Amino acid sequence: MPRVHTPQVKELLGKMTVREKLGQLQQLTWTGETGPGGGQTAETEAASRAGLLGSVLNIYGAAHTNALQRIAVEESRLGIPLLFGLDVIHGFWTTFPIPLAQAASFDPAVSRREAEVSAAEARSNGVHWTFSPMMDVTHEPRWGRIAEGSGEDPYLNAAFAVAKVEGYQGPAGGTELARKNRIAACAKHFVAYGGAEGGRDYNTVDVSEQRLRNHYLPPFKAAIDAGAATVMAAFNTVSGVPAHGNAHIMQTILKDSWGFDGFVVSDYKGVQELIAHGFAEDGANAAALAFGSGLDMEMTSTNIVEHGEALLAEGLLTIERIDDAVARILHLKYALGLFDGPYCDESAEITEPSAAARAAARETAARCMVLLKNDTAALPLSPLTASVAVVGPFADSTDLQGTWAGPGGSRFPSVSILDGVRAAAAEGSVVTHAGADSAAAAAAARHADVIVVVVGEEAELSGEAAARSDLALPHGQEELIAAVAATGKPYVVVLVNGRPLVLGDWFDTAPAVLEAWHPGIEGGHAVADVLFGRAVPGGKLPVTFPRAVGQIPVYYNHESTGRPYNPANPGAQYVSGYLDLAQGPRLPFGHGLSYTSFTTSAPGLSTESISRAELARGMTVPVSVTVTNTGARAGDEVVQLYIHDVAASIAQPVRRLRGCERVTLEPGATTTVTFPLGEEDFGFWTNDPAGTFLVERGRFDIYAGTSSTAQARGTVYVR
Question: Which residue has the higher pLDDT, 397 or 383?
């Protein structure tokens, strides 16, 4: 029996009617600010008063939440408090860079700090629960929701998922959830949502058991181990079975195998959509399938409260299953301290970003930027530059917050890059501006010493239901870059975007290109910090940049195939590649430059072999890598460690990231980073539906360097 069945939960369950229990399994929406449907405000108040509601979506503000909570606590029969949930994805009032950008820092501490700021702001506004972090590993840049996750690698997604959970909740045991600066996390979307065919949101995912367990599930397991209070079911099918009605993933894997004792919430109308999937005949059937498969709370559609009593009477759901779901929800409410303190302190409500929060957002944004290219040391710009032109459609834009920006996204606009450059430029410098018109941009460029070209995609072009079939710069932006280049003046390109883009021919000739992503509320200042060298770029790409859309999916952790392309023999025929496109990506996973230079050593192995029995006992192979700053200024480098199982009973990826650490070094300084490789790193899951993890004998190549293309190698044999 899960630990959620505490004496206080069991006592309360014993007092509840069936209708009250079913009500706890229901979440309604307050305003309709998210999702495709309208608000359910009247229904919410009535159900709260009757004690027939468990949670409310999209309500925030201390006075608003307290008013609704008083109805539930003071006017219902049992006074069970409501659980208030909101999409706090990368900020509440203070919007930090989008999650994909945070992953580019290769420093999970930045996500932990963002989550701490977000949690404090949200909880003071009466929010108890966020639908974050998203940890959907994906190889699909066409998929708009790539912006909300940490890219294409399971290891990196897991590291950032853990950091977010800890930032929101505190320690894994949930001992800090009742604090007024903590909120409950939600690991989403369970599972394989990032594998949607064609990158089209909500689309089919057909995945083998081994791919499910090796590629998509690891970040969720890490988040559960870190104490994630809740999990959200995914919109997609998993090998033909919709996730909202998939007992294999929700019950067998999540609850039975992993021992998850939190609760699983549906996505927006996800239970109702089982009918559209062709999986359920009607609402009653949908409720039976979803809750019978391990779902615990229904978001906005109302099938469980409408049909629950009949389903119980007909034996299509058991009271034991209902009690278990209710117990999981009540347990979280107790952990959050809602029974002892259901109201938030209106005098302590945070109503705007603090100076400290803005400073954290600014520092984080700069830390997340990736220097993609820097020919002839075009960057950083000299602080003595007399005249700077800032051009492009996003030069003066205050829409730099990205998708799912939270309440602060509309109330507190971003600092524009134009304003950031004006603030950072030397006193007396002339900073001029021209928008997206190519002729105007070229005219401004002719009178400037250097041009900053700001291009990319609007926030609305990434996120949910924002798939793109063309990943090139939109709206004539490539022509604008060409017009600036034709002036012969020095220029740099800044990208603001929510996904990897197909970088056209302009990239080959641009002197410098800075990937700024959607950088958040302090984006303009952060971009200027990096452009003028006040912050040194040290981020790396958490996802591959393709050469063309037709090449997608292209990713570093692919399998070899029987006829792999060999760059040492580029003219070979009958290999896996394209006739009309150069092989390999435009930019690989892990790529990123600096204003200084580094060298890294070959991986130093403590031993050449280890036995499977030793690995099973917890022994590891420590691998050390020495990194030296060989340049003239301080900077950051990300040391990356990859492993390749050379021959296995299930073909393994050519490389898998198994360690990374971002280090800061002064000029001439050296440090050594050590990564312990253990059983989890050497093994893999098989196609056994029951879950079999294997470590096989054989050779393992260990690569170390500063991107996924690292060549320095060592070898370990598992015996």
Answer: 397
Report the catalytic residues: 267
Q: What is the pLDDT of residue 37?
A: 44
- 111-115 CB contacts, 8 Å cutoff, 24+ apart: 111/160, 111/163, 111/164, 111/167, 112/163, 112/164, 112/166, 112/167, 113/167, 113/360, 113/364, 114/90, 114/164, 114/167, 114/360, 114/361, 114/364, 115/163, 115/164, 115/165, 115/166, 115/167, 115/168
Q: Report d(CA 719, CA 613) in Å as an integer.
A: 9
Could you tell me if 168 and 132 are in contact, meaning their C-beta atoms sit under 8 angstroms apart?
A: yes
Give per-residue pLDDT as tens, 232-273. Answer: 999 999 999 999 999 999 999 999 999 999 999 999 999 999
Could you please report the per-residue DSSP string of 384-427?
A: T-SEEEEESTTSS----S-SS--HHHHHSPPPPHHHHHHHHSPT
Region 292-296: mean pLDDT is 98
The answer to whether residues 159 and 320 touch, using CB atoms and an 8 Å cutoff, is: no
Positions of E strands within 176-311: 186-190, 230-233, 237-238, 241-242, 263-265, 298-299
**Does the structure show a pLDDT above 90 at 183?**
yes
Q: Torsions phi, psi of 278, nearest 5? A: 80, 20
Cis, peptide link before residue 189, omega less than 30° from 0: yes
Mean pLDDT of 554-580: 92
